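Inverse folding, one chain.
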């Protein structure tokens, strides 16, 4: 198992390096001067020149990239151009909020999605199947920010049941988690249905039914267990997508996570923070994929070979 994990981690190194190169090039050829954002339009030329020298902005591009790689190798993501705070500190403070939101949204999506998918597959064409299909179409079709605004209008403004924004109250996570998890719920539901229908049509299922096994045992123990790998894939990848997709949700609901930090940093042209966040997102996706590969081996040890 250790060798298997090490192979997956080694294969992830080129991906991370590619992300570093692309993020560095895109942000450093973008229009706008971060020094002007730091000091304002009225700063004297000497101050501007001194800051550009400190930030290595006048050095050749390849030299700046080398300096950046050296800092990354030491675990230093740099400092914000605007606040002069260590980027790693800002990420450390905000990431738990994003993880909390994405975790709640994924938990909601996994429970509802798998349940709806099982109900759909148990009786294809029935009421539960048509109901789940309708919810899936709604969840996939509506954009996240629009769903969020509707939920705020209904549950916060009209009914007054839930907070509209922020994270100060325990119920503040309900609306953003429901908004963020809507698309994933629909996707997990359809994948569960498709995988279950494929498994429930196989010979060993008919054998279990012929032996008098209860329908619940046939569906859960025999059906879901053998259909779980595709479902696990979707759930795991969707969790990574939720971490990245929380950008819009955090902006709509004023949720203080790294998604909102990314939006604020892009607006302020704080290139150093954007670079650090892109690297963190890429690292999260890579580690999540390695984790999924390990889960595959746990569920089906034959995959290791």
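Residues assigned per position:
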């Amino acid at each position: 198992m250790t060798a298997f994990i090490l192979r997956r981690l080694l294969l992830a190194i080129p991906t991370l390096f590619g992300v570093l190169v692309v993020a560095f090039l895109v942000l450093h050829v973008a229009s706008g001067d971060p020094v002007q954002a730091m000091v304002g339009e009225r700063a004297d030329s000497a101050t501007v020149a001194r800051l550009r020298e400190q930030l290595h902005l006048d050095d050749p591009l390849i030299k700046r990239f080398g300096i950046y790689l050296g800092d990354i190798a030491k675990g230093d993501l740099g400092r914000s151009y605007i606040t002069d705070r260590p980027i790693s500190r800002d990420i450390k403070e905000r990431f738990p909020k994003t993880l909390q939101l994405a975790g709640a949204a994924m938990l909601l999506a996994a429970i509802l999605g798998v349940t709806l998918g099982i109900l759909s597959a148990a009786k294809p064409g029935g009421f539960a199947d048509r109901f789940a299909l309708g919810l899936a179409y709604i969840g996939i079709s509506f954009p996240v920010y629009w769903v969020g605004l509707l939920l705020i209008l209904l549950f916060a403004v009209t009914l007054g049941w839930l907070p509209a924004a922020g994270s100060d109250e325990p119920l503040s996570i309900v609306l953003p988690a429901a908004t963020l998890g809507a698309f994933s719920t629909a996707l997990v539901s359809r994948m569960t249905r498709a995988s279950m229908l494929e498994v429930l049509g196989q010979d060993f299922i008919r054998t279990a039914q012929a032996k008098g096994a209860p329908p619940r045992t046939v569906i859960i123990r025999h059906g879901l267990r053998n259909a779980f790998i595709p479902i696990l894939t979707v759930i795991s990848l969707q969790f990574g997508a939720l971490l990245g997709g929380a950008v819009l949700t955090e902006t709509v609901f004023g949720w203080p996570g790294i998604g909102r930090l990314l939006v604020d940093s892009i607006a302020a042209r704080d290139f150093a923070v954007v670079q650090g966040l892109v690297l963190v997102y890429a690292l999260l996706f890579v580690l999540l994929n390695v984790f999924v590969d390990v889960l595959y081996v746990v569920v089906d040890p034959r995959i290791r070979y």
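The domain at 88-267 is CATH 1.10.3720.10 (MetI-like fold). The CA atoms of residues 52 and 58 lie 6 Å apart.
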